Each structure stands twice: as C-alpha cells, then as structure tokens.
C-alpha cells in the first residue's frame, strides 16, 4: 500500500464515517476533510473535525503507520504544528508535536471496505505496460472522452508555460519568442536545444532586417550554429562565411558558444543543414510570420504558411562541400504537422491566454483535423483499442502515459478511479 491510496480514501471519504473514534478513544466527526494541495507540508489543509465534542480547524496529515511521522522528521518541522488529526492505516506509536502535546490519531484499517483495498492492489501491482491495459477497452466512453480533454489541456498548459516565460523575459516580443520556439522544433529532439540557443543569441530586429536576403539569413543561422567554422571548398560556403563575418561586425554581435549539431541517426532530410536552411527560407518568404500564424484559422492556412523548401544550394547538397543528386527539399506534410502540434498550437494558446482570450475550443478543432502522431506509445495504446484518430487523441494519450502511468498516479487518473469503482 502507498500513501496515495489513503489520500484517495480520505479525500473521497471511502470509509465508514459513522462511529469513528481516535485510538485514544474519543469520538470523531469529520465536518470538512480539508483541501488536498499536494504541496510541501501537511497533506490536507483547512480541515474541520470534531474530536471529543471539541471542534478543531487545521491540517490533517496522513501516513501508512503512525511512526512515519518521526521517519519523516515532522516533529522538527514548524509546518506540522497545526496538525489537528493524524490519519493512519495502522497505529504503532504515539505521536507528539514539537511542544510535546499528543496528536489525536485516527486508524482507518477497520473502517475501509476490504473490496476497495483488493481493487487497489489489483490495479497497483499489475506487472504490465500500464496497470489498466486489460480494462481500457471496457472503459465508459464518456469517462474516457472527458479525461482525454483534461489531459489535452494539461499537456497544452505545460507546453505553453516556457513560451509565456520567454515572453515575459523579452517584454512580450512575440516575434522573437516565436522565432526561438520554431527554431527549437525545426531541430527536433536531437538539435532542438542547439537551434533554440542559436535563435536566442540573435536579436530579432536583426533577423527581421537580414531575412530580406535569403543568403544573409542562412549565413546568420549557420554562423551562430558554428557550422561555418574552418575551411570550405564551395563558393557558396565561402560566401556565407564572408557574409556572416560582415554581419557580426555590422551588428556588433557577441560571440556565442553552442554545442555541435548532430547528424547521427538522422535521415538526410532531417540533417541540421537542411532544417536550418528551411527555417531561413521560412523567414525570408514570410514577413510578419507571427501575425500570419495568429490570424490563421484553418489547417489549410497553416499549411500554406509553411510551404517552403531549403535554398537552391541544398537541392544538390546535404552537407557543405559534398554534392549529392539533385532533389527538392520542401517541408513535408508530416513535418509541418509536428510544427503545428508542438509550436503553433501551444503558441496560439499562450498568446491567447496573455491577451485574456479563451481559444481552447478552436484549437481542439484544429488538432482533431491533424493525423495522430506515430510512435511506440501511440501504437501500444492502439493495441488496447484506445481511439487515436487525430493529434488531439495522441497528445492526450502521451500526457496520460508520461505524466500518470509512468509515475503510477492511478489515483489521480480518471480511468484508475473508474476501475476502483468497479
């Protein structure tokens, strides 16, 4: 048993509340179980209980055993001075406050339906990919759909947070913020942080000015990423070196150190050279990109915005100085979907929130028009007959697996709670 089970039992009063007494023999009536904040300090705040005819207001602390109070050193922590009731599964020792007064203890093991504990143990001890995988197919669709919506917005909130933080740090320079997060997602998992640091190192006023010339914006991006260092053979690479050196002097750019970009385990179309060139071409062809993205209301609008390809040099190269067969290298449909899922939708959500505008519903509609992502987690959910028709579904399920299943938070999950009801 874990404490989260007892938190669940106390929070939802999953125990017989009549005839309760403390281990000291005083009758207990629960007026208000308190607020479950899951923060440092006691488990439930602002509870109200009547003990021995005296009404108390304060906090409730929950443990498996009474002795856990001392195991966690609560007797030395001032945050626990206002605990009015110690709720435990098993009482094994008297517990004292710092002033040596005894804390009333309520032992729960004789007041909880054994069937609930059996259900919890069956859920929490299963050695499977996720504890409830055998039951997913039988879940009530109303419960599943409501939980998916909650999960989707939880994930969206998490993605929007760093966007809002950077906006605050840049005095709401939304064009600059968009540039940084687009760069990060152009770099994918492997080069995302490098691209993000490259973008942050460039004042956006310079990006805006130099993006009118496609070679200049490429020179800035490749130069800041350290990809123009050393000797080069091709005229194009040498030209970019010269342009970059001139712009560093012209704009008085400070030197920047970023990690080396990675080519390993990338398909050639995902090489950092190609992605940086495509990013540069996007800003070369789309002035006022921020406004266009915010105003775009349909998926077709967004696909049109991202309809760009790598520069002409990169049609015959994947790396500097190494020629390859000629091939156009546009942003693929699937890559644009990733940009929309991971940058555009969170960005629209964050910007809407900053403006006091509620746009969640229209973002859900957009996400429901995008194909579900393809990865091992989504494939596994599909094998359990979980609906994954769109990016809205796949984003919800990724949040479920990463933030709940992986951390065994079944008792904070609507699906886990539904199983306990059975």
TrEMBL record:
Give any Pfam family that matches. Answer: DUF2851
The protein's matches in InterPro entries, at most eight in alphabetical order, are given as: DUF2851
Q: What is this protein called?
A: DUF2851 domain-containing protein
Q: Which taxonomic lineage does the organism of this UniProt entry have?
A: Bacteria, Pseudomonadati, Bacteroidota, Flavobacteriia, Flavobacteriales
């Amino acid at each position: 048993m874990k404490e989260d089970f007892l938190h669940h039992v106390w929070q939802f009063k999953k125990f017989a509340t009549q005839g309760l007494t403390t281990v000291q023999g005083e009758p207990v009536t629960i007026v208000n179980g308190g607020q479950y904040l899951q923060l440092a300090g006691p488990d439930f705040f602002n509870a109200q209980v009547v003990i021995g005819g005296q009404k108390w207001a304060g906090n409730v602390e929950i443990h498996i055993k009474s002795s856990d109070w001392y195991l966690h050193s609560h007797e030395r922590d001032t945050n626990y001075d206002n605990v009015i009731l110690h709720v435990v599964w098993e009482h094994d020792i008297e517990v004292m406050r710092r002033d040596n007064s005894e804390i009333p203890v309520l032992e729960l093991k004789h007041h909880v339906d054994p069937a609930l504990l059996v259900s919890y143990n069956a859920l929490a001890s299963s050695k499977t990919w996720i504890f409830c995988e055998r039951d997913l197919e039988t879940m009530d669709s109303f419960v599943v759909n409501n939980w998916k919506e909650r999960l989707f917005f939880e994930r969206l909130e998490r993605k929007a947070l760093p966007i809002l933080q950077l906006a605050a740090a840049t005095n709401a320079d939304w064009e600059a913020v968009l540039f940084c997060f687009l760069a990060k997602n152009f770099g994918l998992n492997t080069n995302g942080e490098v691209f993000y640091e490259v973008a942050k190192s460039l004042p956006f006023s310079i990006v805006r000015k130099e993006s009118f010339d496609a070679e200049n914006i490429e020179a800035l991006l490749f130069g800041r990423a350290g990809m123009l260092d050393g000797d080069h053979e091709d005229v194009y690479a040498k030209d970019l070196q010269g342009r970059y050196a001139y712009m560093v002097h012209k704009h008085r750019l400070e030197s920047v150190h970023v990690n080396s970009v990675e080519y390993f385990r990338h398909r050639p179309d995902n090489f950092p050279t190609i992605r940086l060139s495509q990013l540069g071409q996007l800003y070369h062809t789309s002035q006022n990109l921020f406004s266009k993205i915010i105003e775009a209301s349909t998926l077709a609008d967004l696909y049109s915005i991202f309809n760009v390809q790598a520069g002409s040099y990169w049609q015959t190269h994947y790396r500097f100085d190494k020629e390859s067969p000629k091939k156009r290298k546009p942003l693929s449909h699937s890559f644009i979907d990733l940009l929309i899922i991971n940058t555009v939708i969170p960005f629209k959500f964050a910007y809407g929130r900053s403006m006091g505008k509620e746009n969640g519903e229209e973002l859900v509609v957009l996400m429901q028009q995008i194909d579900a992502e393809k990865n091992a987690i989504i494939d596994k959910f599909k094998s359990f007959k979980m609906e994954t028709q769109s990016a809205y579904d796949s984003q919800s399920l990724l949040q479920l697996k990463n933030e709940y299943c992986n951390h065994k938070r079944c008792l904070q999950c609507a699906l886990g709670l539904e199983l306990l009801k059975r």
